[in-house]
Predict the 3D structure of the following.
Amino acid sequence: MSSPVLPEETEVQLDAVSRRLALTNDVAVRFARMVEIRLLEDRVIDLFGEGLIPGTTHTCQGQEAVAVGIAGATRPDDVVVCTYRGHGMALALGVTPDALLGEILGRQIGCMGGIGGSMHLSDSSVGLLPTMAIVGAGIPIAAGSALTAQVLGSDRISVSVFGDGSTNIGGFHEGLNLAAIWRLPVIFVCENNLYGEYSRIDRTTPIEDLALRAAGYAIPSETVDGQDVDAVLSVIERAAARAREGEGPTFIEAKTYRYAGHSRSDKAAYRPAGELDSWLERDPVRLYGEKLIANGTLDEEGIERIWAEQRDALEATLERVLASPRASTADMFTRVQASGS
Amino acid sequence: MSSPVLPEETEVQLDAVSRRLALTNDVAVRFARMVEIRLLEDRVIDLFGEGLIPGTTHTCQGQEAVAVGIAGATRPDDVVVCTYRGHGMALALGVTPDALLGEILGRQIGCMGGIGGSMHLSDSSVGLLPTMAIVGAGIPIAAGSALTAQVLGSDRISVSVFGDGSTNIGGFHEGLNLAAIWRLPVIFVCENNLYGEYSRIDRTTPIEDLALRAAGYAIPSETVDGQDVDAVLSVIERAAARAREGEGPTFIEAKTYRYAGHSRSDKAAYRPAGELDSWLERDPVRLYGEKLIANGTLDEEGIERIWAEQRDALEATLERVLASPRASTADMFTRVQASGS
Amino acid sequence: MPKLRMNQAIALAIREEMERDPTVVTFGEDIAEAEGPFKTSEGLLERFGPLRVRDTPISETGFLGAAVGAAVTGLRPVVEIMFVEFLGVALDQVVTEAAMMHYLSGGRLNAPLTVRASCGSGLGFGCQHSQTLERWLLGTPGLKLAVASGARSAYGLTKAAIRDPDPVVVLEPRALYGRREDFEPGEDAVLPFGVGELLANGDDVTIVALGQTVGIALNAVSEANGWSADVIDLRTLMPWDRGIVERSVARTGRLVTVEENQLTGGWGGEIVSHVASRCYSDLRGPVMRITAPDVHVPYGSELEAEYLPSSPYVAKQISELISTDKVPGHWWEDTR
Amino acid sequence: MPKLRMNQAIALAIREEMERDPTVVTFGEDIAEAEGPFKTSEGLLERFGPLRVRDTPISETGFLGAAVGAAVTGLRPVVEIMFVEFLGVALDQVVTEAAMMHYLSGGRLNAPLTVRASCGSGLGFGCQHSQTLERWLLGTPGLKLAVASGARSAYGLTKAAIRDPDPVVVLEPRALYGRREDFEPGEDAVLPFGVGELLANGDDVTIVALGQTVGIALNAVSEANGWSADVIDLRTLMPWDRGIVERSVARTGRLVTVEENQLTGGWGGEIVSHVASRCYSDLRGPVMRITAPDVHVPYGSELEAEYLPSSPYVAKQISELISTDKVPGHWWEDTR
Ligand SMILES: Cc1ncc(C[n+]2csc(CCOP(=O)(O)OP(=O)(O)O)c2C)c(N)n1
Ligand SMILES: Cc1ncc(C[n+]2csc(CCOP(=O)(O)OP(=O)(O)O)c2C)c(N)n1
Ligand SMILES: [Mg+2]
Ligand SMILES: [Mg+2]
């Protein structure tokens, strides 16, 4: 599990790894993590609304199962490259709420020191490469991190997470082709939440089944219900096994939905009436809770307790973060170059 | 046939249009044009060998049928966007050998005034947009010229010509997707000559049938024998009809081969033994000559005469061009901006 | 006189040009139905319909390339790049294709294409969404480059860009979209390229500013103590108005550029070099560039405010220059 | 001492670094089986095999992005961009992704990536294959930028780039690939970044050159009549050696930059601005930039030769500067 990308481990980083392992090993933790993501995202929207945060943010309510499924099916020494819509993925991978909210709120305890903001998360201890704010840029980067594993002969894999809208940019095409021709151990996960910004997918993409595109690179593909965490988990597990066996990339389309608008200022008025409601009927957090009750892992009360615990924890975190020091002027200068500035 | 892209017509330009119409109307001219291309390309290689020309050149011996087929199936007011491997396409569209050799030899009579060189041809009188030397760049540009026809309500179409290697660059992906979603009147013609520079297609592209990629944009596709000028012609005619009817883009893969290396300095040692020979057996110029004899259009002697005429014409052209003035220092400055410099 | 926000002024400029010339079309990501992420195309889809006002896929190379192809065949496309950084995935189409079309057609084709891009810091968007990046464009033969400094200049430059026969990039400082300005739209408000504007008059120094720093420079001058300055809004960088700068420096004897860029590679170097070279005998002190430090744009209101030169800082640096005839250190030379 | 061509020196540098460090890999279009379009990777595939030496599809965004991902996870990729213009389709990966990786990881990750790109005029490749384009890169925080001026500096800079923890772009003037130079390869020949080299000594003027103009400047000096010059090969533009330039100007009192770029937006503006600003009191005459005109690089040997500043032209301009203490007009100011 040790990795060449890991420098000295700080306390927070160790914490991230244990959080990750807890999620891998315990389905109740998996559920709790989904709750954590949901609550935190809702809170972030509020914080922006209250004017506490400058800039923008992209939340992922409704997409929790994809993030938790990916995290549950991979190892902390695997690499994940996701996007500006990365809070959920980061938390699922183990990034602590302190580090995440710290970053969003511009604090030094933020996972990149509070000078990146909501779109720029990173934690190498759990394999989260910096989340990039340029659509498509992360796709070839994920291929490249898989190249490292291939060249060094390790069985680490990479996961590239991106949206439906990103399948129209050149980096998608080039990244998938390169991964295919080099047989790289990488899984491409397209979170098809039906929208790229304010545009519905059918207005920008002339096909419905994105797997057709994978065929253009001879990459095997699967489509999965993105609201079902176990379904996501098992499709990723299969793809990860293929990748670790040297059988190359897999393309996975997870059908999902984002409840909030594209970013802080978007009220999502462009959505057809009823669309959100019909997706809410298949809410991934509730569905998973029901499943855990059905199979006897938890009872109603256990579910309620998890919600309550997570609510309390979030408020405690927020208090800690708001009391912690902001990024300072010096921080602007010290991480521009690895060779010192 | 008049076009908003046409400024004042010079003699040479008028000549280009008549050359184009001659090719459309007369199969013997079509054959003569293929001979012209073959001879000129061979001569260009010699000229470079003799040190008469600086820089590089990309010739198209073996691919004549694709160029002539496209020219024969389209109108002079349609738009064609091709690449640095553009001599054949330019001649087929009507560009005169004087304008072409003039450009290659840096003369003011060159089709862009002798300051562009072999990779940069252009003649708006026959719809040839400037040939660009950046792989893939012309693909969205062709889509854009089709957008003009769509917006202005004209029935002009655009043809985008590019190589097999270019199907791996982002501009290909984005250009095709945009053309599909906007239903633009454009035909994408991929000249699959099996190589991108020195790399055989199977080493860079994980699929054999490039039409699979078109499916990723819901673009209908056809594969055609690129050595058979009539086959190319009819596939383009079908696609052109679709485009003019408002039915959107078509993707055509023309299977062909380049006899020479990628560029002036390339001896093509990377080719498997026998590959060139097997393609030479289906030489497009010879095949077409045989067909014209078989159907009684020409006899052996007629074929010979065309070769001889074209040989003489080429030498005469070359003499004229070499005697004509070189581009001058002032030419460097006068065409940098349309608004004057 | 209507008081327009800068984004409204831009939408008005595009609308008027679309009325005037049926070959003007506009497209970009979410500019049609959603009327633009920054509301710079409000009302256009409704007025001109989906043939001329289009949303695009997330395909900067695709739609910029399409704009190039459309421009050389008879349209005048106005395309929006949501954040100027996104040009990084498609720069080729602007600087290597569009800018060479006239040249590569032997002077026969024009590429009358307008690329609008929001730019700049001040809104907390973080390092990949807060730069100005004139440097990617400055120096490209065949291209023109304008930078808006408010509603009035955005209106005038956008209209001029759309009418121009050459490809033009217009940068729009994002932090100014919401600011209102009084001005009279119309033909007289069209701003010619290559003509700077003198916004304040003074004797001791010539300040050249652009985009977001125009307001900063004007504020600095209003706080000036014991000195006065010419303040020039350069408005276009390609071409740039050598005459207005040279004439002013001939009077003031000093030149200061105020830019939003990092120090290295910014446009200020071009102006300063020209003056130091060609107006040497007019100078009575060193030329000076006031810029941001050579770092990524930090996130967070406070740090971002420190990053961008502030009016008090500009005033302080200029005071020191004038009183000592030496260029004072940049603020970060002390800090670090 | 072996007499190596510049392309051989580059291949040797890569080979030695690959021997030294098993995490060094190299890829690009036709660099493996064909050993590079300019033969800069001769022998590498044979020596290191297809896992570490790879041909890529024509996908600059794809393979540059892959290099970024590989770099932050433990490899040291050396990627070739055949002609620097091709960065236009993929600039994002270098300046917005690679250059920000260290910053965006809170300082935890490095992106030790070397991008090699051939550049420059002189071989008749026409306007889309003959530029230098430092301007696309200069000023990008987090990025380093080196320019080779011959076999020796190409060798030393390439090795330093591969060892550097930050992303580095090394530009290789294409016209120099075939030129031979005598030098001793090895550890001592590794060239540190940010250190210029004084190649000639003189009293009257400091000439700063880079890449292909280093040889041009040296020739100009050898033809100089009545004056002598310090000639500095700047070698790296990010960081650039302020010290060597400042010290020289303090002695000579004059600065001239000789660049291959068009006038506007070239690196010379950065050097000249710094000196005009910070070394003002050392100057005894105006600073001067000698450049190409603001046009596309023309095709054809004669025109291309006119485009690039020649040694006699450089000598003439400097003579005039020294004798008149005025900056003479550029050649094209008379011509047009
Ligand atoms: C190259 C580039 N173009 C445009 C944008 C602006 N942008 C940010 S997110 C986004 C939509 C992406 O949609 P999708 O890929 O479906 O992901 P989602 O936001 O739905 O998760 C756009 C257009 C960008 N960041 N980068
Ligand atoms: C963006 C870009 N990358 C690389 C090149 C260098 N290059 C020129 S031609 C070529 C091969 C293109 O192959 P293909 O598309 O099959 O066309 P063909 O040459 O076979 O006609 C390459 C890699 C380029 N011109 N532009
Ligand atoms: Mg989406
Ligand atoms: Mg090919």
